[in-house]
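On clarity, I found the account of how folds are encoded harder to follow than it need be. Since the whole study asks how a given chain folds, the encoding of that fold should be made plain. For illustration, here is how one protein appears when written out as sequence plus structure tokens:
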Amino acid sequence: MKFITAGESHGPCLTAIVSDVPAGLRISERQLNTDLERRQQGYGRGGRQRIETDRATVLSGIRFGKTLGTPITLQVANRDWKNWMDRMSVFGPEPEDLKKEVTPRPGHADLVGVLKNDTDDCRNILERSSARETAARVAAGGIAKEFLAELGVEVFSFVTGIGPVSMLEEDPMGSAPYYAPLDIETSELRCPDRQTTEDMKRAIDAARVKGESLGGTFRVVVKGLVPGLGDFCSGPERLTSKLGAAVFSIPAIKGVEFGLGFEAARREGSSVHDPITRNDRDGYTREGNNAGGLEGGMTTGQALIITAAMKPIPTLMTPLRTVNIDTLEVEEASKERSDTCAVPAAGIVAEAEVALVLADAYMDKFGRDNMGDIKANLRQYVSRIKTQSR
């Protein structure tokens, strides 16, 4: 399952085209829009979220609620476009009073993009590099999540840390798959621990007062995966490579861990690797899940656990120093309407990215044409590996 997005932050809309979608998959319009709504929520979000009410309009590939096996086109309108029509006009001359963005923000794509594309206006870069583009990714990922759900796979995320505040977990790998979804979704920061949520909110309030921004960490968990998705033969084909690339593609992500991650480097091997066991119900399984559901670039059948670190948003209400690309003088960086903290939203985007990679892995193994054949092939595979383990 592949996708491509198009559109600018303040253009008319964002568009996603999802290809390699099998025929016969039921798609819920309500579920697609629920994920878009989840992306907009979270304590610390800015004014843009009060303007937009993201909804996915399906323009192709679905008939009567089922996929046709053809590319699916999804569109998310930008309601703020009406305020930017002159400054972001597709055709016609520039307005006489057009104000160019000439003070690139440290930490953003502004300056490097200007140098790369030989332009004198950071607006030509920041419109596309803006995290607003991720709304289209979430819409695309909704198709993948529906596909995985049909195969018994659940994808969810939660926040583990904001700035200096982190949730205390005695056994992160063991507890992650079992946090109550209601505890996550009713938290203003999508953190399953109530006290940690309140501590995180206070940290965000303090940062807002200072004109600062905060990053943090979040975890994506996938339950119900069969073992053997991915490949061990080629580095680029390892599922670890594909999942890592997908999560790193999200703006502001600076670190990705699978399972224990960096903690594994501090332990002896016997306290890292998961002993193998077997039972008649599950076949081969593991006594723990320090590996986070991946060994040798393939799924083990245990829960997939990915933790990611997001840096603070580069747009600051108390701007850092920069250089004006017109005058070459030192000035304060430009300010765009922005969030104080968007870590919960990044987790929703990561759900979409992870789901798209896993959906493609399932189709690599079980077929791409239609849901009936894919499910039949999956049932045969599950039956065979359980028989093989007797």
Summary: The first strand starts at residue 2 and ends at 6. Residues 59 and 263 are 46 Å apart (CA to CA). The mean pLDDT is 93. The radius of gyration is 22 Å.
